[in-house]
Amino acid sequence: MNTQQETIYAVSSGALPSGVAVIRLSGPQSGPILRKLIKGRFPVSRESCLKKLWDPVDGSVLDHALILWFEGPGSFTGEDTVELHCHGGRAVVAAVLRALSTFEKTRPAEQGEFTRRAFHNNKLDLTEVEGLADLIDAETDAQRRQAQRQMDGALGDLYSQWREALIRSRAMIEAELDFSDEDDIPDSVADEIWVELAKLRDQIVAHLSDARRGERLRSGLQVVLLGPPNAGKSSLMNKLAQRDVAIVTPEAGTTRDVLEVHLDLGGYPVTLIDTAGIRESAGMIEKEGIRRALVHAEKADLILWTHAPNVAAEELPESLLKNGAEIWRLNTKSDLGSDADHDSFETTQEINVSVREEGGMNALLSSLESFAERNIGLIENPLITRERHRSHLTQCVEDLNHGIQAEGFPIELRGEDLRRAADQLGRITGRIDVEDLLDVIFRDFCVGK
């Protein structure tokens, strides 16, 4: 059976119990089902009304609900859609869902199925779908704003404009090839087109040269606390998180594994990672903790190298000095005095902090917020937010370069390069050959969305 011919339903408003629960239906049976659930005048499309919901089996009242009827294609999914705003008790919702299950060609929705139907009905492209997923998952204001821009089509519109430019250029080149004897086709139009295509390629290259700001904003900057045992990493972690995330004791080597906490710093997402203390004389379990610490440090955007008085200094591994991450030196336990023994490697900045007396904490937080603003602050142009976008854009540039640099080659072959480049952009928005991607994209959506 064509799943688009089935009517689907699900709770779209989150965990129960709640003050209000929204039950959504979408599909061809939405209207007929609503007529059997209510009595009296059928709602006007896109106007809310209060109605009793009647059990279609025994005729009892299920609930008093606010009804919204959206006639397709003027709905989120592009299909006839109903929203039942019921009381959010578990028994109420269970009774309404049980009533819906009695109708033919009607079934519970799968994860992301409402949004998937919106995509298939051309209500959203894939970048907008991904923007919607990011908006639901957004934890900070900056993530919310980026997701909103993407869901509103900023990224998809940009890629569609580039794709249309490639298609027009290819059409003009083929027109010169097919109708070179016609007066209305200018001579050597292809020469001008390749100049314009080189400019378009440069725009895409500039778009790719964004230091992965969009991806960093989606996932959060990775900030790793690294240093010798008893240097105050776990105490600092707890202070920044404002809760007891890590165990703190005078015993060296307490932290054996990697601990993560998500912070909102000035609206920007930061994942702060506490790690095992770096030292040579460590047991088997502690050595594994140190190995994991170094793995996370190699992927970090920022390393906070902790140093405390009367704690034996350790050398930062050479590999971490070459991974491109900034390294800050934190002189922890500054209330105990200073220590002239500095590490041999250079750091971007040095901050004195004391968890016990809260000295330097405001300076550290301010510096972290500035770092986040500098690395993932929103800019006017749309940002790449996923690796799959970057991969298709990179291939698009390669195809464009191949065509632009292939002077003297048959124009048909150069035109084929343009077709491939345009197809790469089409795959980002989901209009060309993306069926194999859909299960991956929609699997993380919640049921009801």
UniProtKB/TrEMBL annotation:
It is found in: Cytoplasm. Mg(2+) binds at residues 234, 255. NCBIfam families: mnmE_trmE_thdF, PRK05291.1-3, small_GTP. Homodimer. Heterotetramer of two MnmE and two MnmG subunits. Binds 1 potassium ion per subunit. GTP binds at residues 230-235, 249-255, 274-277. Pfam families: MMR_HSR1, MnmE_helical, TrmE_N. The gene is mnmE. This is tRNA modification GTPase MnmE.
